[in-house]
Amino acid sequence: MNGRITVSGVVQTDPRSLTTVEGLAIATFAIRATADVSSRIRISASREFGPFVVTALDALADAVATGVRSGDHVVIAGSLHLAPTSESGFVVAELHADAVGLDVRRRRGDRRPVGCHDSRILPS
């Protein structure tokens, strides 16, 4: 199953990054999704969400590798891919990120820029 999705949650692992021999930067990390009380979709508060495996590519991967840390609250927009595992019957939720941002509603500590390389935007 593939679909567009926006997910907010807490980063569970520091990003792991690598560059392929072709020069493609890849960063991956896991997040635990949080329920959005403002959403029109209602999910029971007693349900615990499983982790999402997030993958970012190219410039976004570089920004994620330097700007995201375990414990950060993030918002991610991208493409959702669900893949069943053969041995356990569980489903792995992979999120191929188009955008990653720190959730300023739940920010802690210092601000760090993430995923923005537009020269028209000046740092504050």
UniProtKB/TrEMBL annotation:
Q: Which PROSITE patterns match?
A: SSB
The UniProt keyword set, sorted, is: DNA-binding
Which GO MF terms does the UniProt record name? single-stranded DNA binding
- Protein name as catalogued: Single-stranded DNA-binding protein
Say which species the protein is native to. Answer: Labedella phragmitis
